[in-house]
Design a protein that fits this description.
It is built from 6 helices and 2 strands; from the N terminus they run ββαααααα. With 137 residues, the protein is mostly helical. A hairpin with a 2-residue loop joins β1 and β2. The protein is extended, with a radius of gyration of 21 Å.
């Protein structure tokens, strides 16, 4: 059975991979999975990830809103690993973007950029350790 492809996932002019049209459980077989994997180009995904700008994402209100919504859902559903992943990655991305926008020059050990980066990193690490290992339901 051959799947019909209804849409493409694109970034700019590059096509990353095709999404198969919805099908019933009886239509899923090994050949359809193999066809999807054949159309899934890892070099396109790697190019997409390399072209993606973290600074642009972290200042996008739609991205921040979707991450806040996903974190809220993970908190309500008690999915701690997902919550820690969302908070850790989004927090580190925001911290890195903030630090790079302020400049990376370090004049002394008491540089405000260095203190914000180290303090924010320690805070994020504390939150991750607390949520994963200390907090119990």
């Amino acid at each position: 059975m051959r799947l019909a492809f209804r849409s493409d996932i694109c970034y700019g002019d590059r096509k990353i991979f095709n999404l198969p049209a919805p099908c019933s459980d009886s239509d899923m077989n090994l050949s359809s999975v193999m066809e999807f994997l054949h159309d899934f180009k890892t070099d396109r995904v790697i190019e997409f990830l390399q072209d993606m700008q973290v600074g642009d994402l972290i200042s996008n209100p739609w991205f921040l809103g979707s991450m806040a919504l996903a974190a809220l859902i993970a908190l309500v559903m008690h999915w701690r690993l997902l919550l820690v992943t969302i908070l850790g990655l989004t927090g580190f991305s925001g911290l890195l973007s903030y630090t790079l926008s302020r400049g990376t020059e370090i004049e002394s050990l008491q540089s405000s950029t260095l203190l914000v980066f180290v303090g924010g990193g320690v805070f994020l690490l504390f939150i991750v350790i607390y949520l994963l290992f200390i907090k119990s339901d």
